[in-house]
Amino acid sequence: MSDRTFDLQVSGYTKGGYAFTLTFKDVSWTKLDESLLWINGQLTKADVSPGQPEAANGLTSNPGWPDTKICPIHKEEMTRHEKGKSHWWSHKVISEDGSETWCRGK
Question: Is the model's pTM score more than 0.70?
């Protein structure tokens, strides 16, 4: 068998809820096992998890999107909202005077 190559794509989610896709170019069939072990090791070090089927992760309308992610400012869980073709992530913030506002993590 000739040493033909192919491209390999791996998708999943970071611990913070961000979706990612990695593409590995020109992977050799003869070194496939070695390549997959290396990729698995790198993903384990980066603390990422594989994507889940729609029913397993609770997503109902938009498979591939995580349910939540973490606000980089407040370290609070954010929820994805959508209206029409727009979407955004936010969480509620209660100020010292008791009033409520929304943070988008920016």
Answer: no
